[in-house]
Write a structure and sequence with these properties.
Blueprint: E1 5-14, E2 17-27, E3 32-36, H1 43-51, E4 57-65, E5 68-69, H2 75-80, E6 83-86, E7 93-97, H3 98-110, H4 116-130, E8 140-141, H5 147-161, E9 165-169, H6 177-194, E10 197-202, E11 215-220, E12 223-228, H7 230-239, H8 242-252
Parallel strand pairs: 3-10, 3-11, 6-9, 9-10
Antiparallel strand pairs: 1-2, 1-4, 4-5, 7-8, 11-12
Helix pairs in contact: 3-5, 5-6
The protein binds adenosine-5'-diphosphate (ADP) and magnesium ion (MG).
Length: 253
Amino acid sequence: MIPMLKIENLTVQVLDKVILKNFSMTIEDGEIVALMGPNGTGKSTICKVLMGDPTYTIQSGSVTYNGEDLLAMSIEDRSRKGLFLLNQNPLEIEGVSNAEMLRAALEARTNEPMNFFEFNKKITKICKEQNIPTSFIHRGINEGMSGGEKKKNEMLHLFILEPNLILLDELDSGLDVDALKELAEGLNTYIHEKHASLLIVTHHSAIFKYIMPKRVCVLKDGQIAKTGDYHLAEEILEHGFRYNEVSEKQNDE
Ligand SMILES: Nc1ncnc2c1ncn2[C@@H]1O[C@H](COP(=O)(O)OP(=O)(O)O)[C@@H](O)[C@H]1O
Ligand SMILES: [Mg+2]
C-alpha cells in the first residue's frame, strides 16, 4: 500500500545553511508519529517545507502525498488535498476574518458558492462543541489574540477544513496545562473519528499524555537518528536528548 506521506532523502537549505540532510520519513494512513529533537534541529523546517513555504530551498529528494508529487503542488492544492499545519507561531493576518477565509477555502474546494447561513450554522456548531468562543468567527485571523487563543483559533480552522494529514508543530508552546489538555483531547477525538494521520512535532513530551504516538523519531544533524515506540519519548523525558548519544558511545567503547 502507498503510504500517505513519503519523504525520501530530502536535503533542505535556508540562506546558505543546510538544515535537513537526506531526511527520510513515512507516515501511513491513520498513523500518529512523533518527531522529537532539541531546539533548532529543523523540526519546524520540515513542517514548513511540507506546506510549501518558499523560504526553504529543496536541494534534492522527493516527497509524495498519497502517491502524488507533493513538492510540485501549489500551496492551495496541498491544503485542498487535506494537508494542514498547526503552526508553532500562528501568523496574524490583519483585515481578513476567520469566516471570510474559511468560507472562501471551502468554496475553492467545491467550486460552488457556499450558503452564508449554512456556513454560519456549521462554524457556530463547531465553536460550541469545541469550546471555542463564537466571537472568534468574525475576528481577523489570529489578530490581537494571545498565544493560547491563536492555537485555539487554528483548531477552529482545522475542524472546518477537515484535513487528512495534520502537522502539529509544538502545540504546547504558549498554552497552559488546561488549554493543552482541552485542545489535545479535541484533536485526539478528531483524528480517531476521521482516521486522519498526525505528525506531532515537539521537543518535550507533555502532549503524549493526551495523544499517544505509535512511533517516535528523533531528529539530529538533519536526519532521523533514532526511531522507537513511546518508550523512547519516556527515555528522552527522563534523561534528555543527549542520553542516547552517551549510551551509544559507551556501547562503542
Ligand atoms: N527562515 C529562516 N531564516 C534563517 N534561518 C532559519 C530559517 N528557518 C529556520 N532557520 C534555521 O534553521 C534551523 C532549524 O530551525 P527550525 O526548523 O525552526 O528548528 P526547530 O523547529 O527544530 O527548533 C535553525 O538554526 C534556524 O535558525
Ligand atoms: Mg520549531
